[in-house]
Specification:
The structure is a single chain. The protein contains three helices and four strands; from the N terminus they run E-E-E-H-E-H-H. It has helices spanning 53-56, 73-86, 105-117, and strands at residues 15-18, 23-28, 35-39, 61-65.
Length: 121
């Protein structure tokens, strides 16, 4: 990790975050920096950003949370684009990375499996 020794690095800790219809996990570094929201990839959770978060917190208020169900960078890109379209007053800059414009069967299969077999699978 650039500019950070192993002894300086600390694994970020998320807390439970309660929404009206479910509870998820949320990491929020707090602070006065510009907010930076990190959305995780398919099959992962907020912890995929654990090594990046300490590098970003000196410059940003970093927010990373578990998307309900499964997440996905493409889904995160869609969420970010929708937010920018609906509430441009909340978005200063937007960078969408590793998203796709083409659907994949997994995009439909994964939520369908969660609906029929539950979230544990």
């Amino acid at each position: 990790m650039p500019n950070m020794s192993r002894s300086e690095w600390r694994f970020p800790v998320a807390r439970p975050f309660h929404l009206p219809d479910h509870t998820t996990r949320l990491f929020d570094s707090g602070g006065d920096g510009p907010p930076l929201v990190l959305l995780h990839a398919l099959g992962l959770d907020w912890r995929m950003w654990s090594r990046v978060i300490p590098l970003l917190t000196p410059h940003y208020r970093v927010i990373a949370y578990d998307l309900r169900g499964f997440g996905g960078l493409s889904l995160g890109g869609s969420i970010a684009l929708e937010l920018a379209l609906r509430r441009p007053d909340l978005v200063t800059d937007l960078t969408v990375i590793a998203a796709t414009a083409w659907p994949s069967p997994a995009f439909e299969e994964r939520p369908r499996a969660a609906e029929t077999a539950g979230m544990e699978t």
